[in-house]
Amino acid sequence: MTYQELQTLEINIHKSKNISLLINNLQKERGLSSGYLASNGKLFATQLPIMQHNVDSSFQNFIFYCHGHRDQYIKIKRKLKDLRLNIQNLSTKVDFEFLFYTKLIQELQANYLEVVQDVNDASLKNQLISYTNLSFSKEALGQIRASINALLSAHNNNKNLRNMVLLAKGNYDVSLQRSKATITKKYKNKLGKILCSSDYKYIQKIFHNVIEKGLYTNSSKKWFIKSTNIIEDFYSLEQNHFSDIDKEIQRDFTEEKITFIIVLLIFLLITISTLFFGSHIKQNILKNIKLLEEYKNAVDRSSIVSKTDKSGRITYANDEFCKISGYTRDELIGNAHNMVRHPDMSKSAFKEMWKTILAKKSWSGIVKNRTKDGSDYIVEVTINPILNEKGEIEEFIAIRNDITELIQLHEDLEHTQEDLIYRMGEIGETRSKETGFHVRRVAKYSEILAKYYGLKEQEIKYLISASPMHDIGKVGIADNILNKPDKLTHDEWLVMKTHVNIGYDLFKDSSKPLLQTAATIAYEHHEKYDGSGYPRGLKGNEIHIYGRITAFADVFDALGSERCYKQTWEDEKIFKLLKEERGKHFDPQLVDIFFEHLDEFLAVRDFYNESSSFMKES
């Protein structure tokens, strides 16, 4: 890494250290707040203000490093202050409080992924991924602490809190396995001691009593102390890991400085030799040639290197290139580089690459290649044109680093985040006694509509991941209104409609595209094409396409499903209504797409029917 890259990384690492402390304090405040609300203010009234003060201090230190996002986090801090006032007055619910803190912590954790993406050094990148996995494990454990603390403080069964415990436990198990897979032997042993401790066995026992036996008689204060001890052990392990990363960065700083000094000394030595020791010029030239040969050997040993002529024929391949591609040097020399090209790589990407290097410019990018046996690997590659004394291209040299494993780890982290968002959507549906099948069907219907509507691949991906969150705002609606079997009164209907505002408020301040998509869907999926919907009465294309698609998918699935206030409709009646609402409730183009591809929608409905098992999915 260059000196400037190391400086940037050092700043980001110190920012991550402040984030880690802030997250740790927010996790404790979440747990204490859950217990305080669940016990109607009888428990944790003394500890909660102290922890809130600790959070404010660590928040202030974190904001110092935020720069461009400082106003955003100051705004979040104000919302935190309002939430605390509602908690103090017992005027908010445990599940809303829990989701607020969890959403804030997840947004803070996203900074870890941004730091990882900006690091090129493989060793440091692996350590940062390991550090991130530990952080996700600790957060999932913090969610378990807060949810069970609320259950024990209330001394009764709360379905929403039980669902939160089970969701957090699933995320904890996944994150813990990834932590074990990525940390070094040194930290794996330390993690093993934590998992064998008496405090860890205690929290396992309480989890079993609460979730499997339905026992809520244990002391919430003892639970909070014991679970906090384990989380602090995780935090200590995380900080030790962080310390090692910081040491490696400082070592790289030192090496970079030494390298600079050595190069400077060599330059001075050559200059002095040329000026004052003309008789030794030949000897110095030979020495420099030898040094250059050593530099070449160093690159050959640490990177995947090849050279090609101006037509793209391979003229040189080092041992690492032969090893990763599966071809011998004799098989490679004289052949075009496209012999290792993977079908997933588009021709346009290589066309752009050739345009750049033929213009005598360096080209860098991520390339997926295919080995001799047909398997694939991913490399980060830089191609430089080599010019002669006339400034003409003589050949090209390509230097690569194998990042196949890092790409897989990054994809795993993204899938974990998407899964967490998906499960939050399922929590919202369980409030209204819906199963997870509803959100899965809505996601699949949305995917079909988006594909034929012509949305881009990334837009479709965001829509699929975020559409399950369309009714997340229902977590803030009282059960007596949400699950009322009879027609709602005027006042009850006004309360019910606020679920779109609640869902929008949960995500609107996030800078992440996926959560912005979730905010749009939550806010606009009850708008109607003719302007008669709510909350803003948007009309036609004023409604975001995400909202129009989710509205259609949600209504189609709702009509074909049994609810507490209605029976399942027959298909003919559903189809008749959809045609009648074309241009009224629904975007006409979406209605046309539905009937043109009806078989696909019915196949999704049959696959995810209420008697299906999620085990069907591959």
Q: In brief, what are we looking at here?
A:
The protein has 618 residues and is an alpha+beta fold. Helices cover 67% and strands 6% of the residues.
Fold topology:
Layout: H1 3-38, H2 47-63, H3 70-88, H4 94-117, H5 122-154, H6 159-182, H7 185-195, H8 198-212, H9 220-276, H10 281-302, E1 304-308, E2 314-317, H11 319-325, H12 329-332, H13 347-358, E3 363-370, E4 376-387, E5 393-402, H14 404-431, H15 436-453, H16 457-466, H17 479-482, H18 490-497, H19 499-507, H20 513-524, H21 545-559, H22 571-580, H23 588-596, H24 598-607
Antiparallel strand pairs: 1-2, 1-5, 3-4, 4-5
Describe it.
It contains 24 helices and 5 strands. The protein is α+β, with helices and mostly antiparallel strands and 618 residues long. It folds into 3 domains: 3-252, no CATH class; 303-404, 2-Layer Sandwich (Beta-Lactamase); 432-616, Hypothetical protein af1432 (Orthogonal Bundle), CATH 1.10.3210. It has a 5-stranded antiparallel beta sheet with strand order 2-1-5-4-3, sandwiched between helices. Strand 1 and strand 2 form a beta hairpin. The chain is globular and about 95 Å long. Residues 431-435 and 612-618 have low confidence and may be disordered.
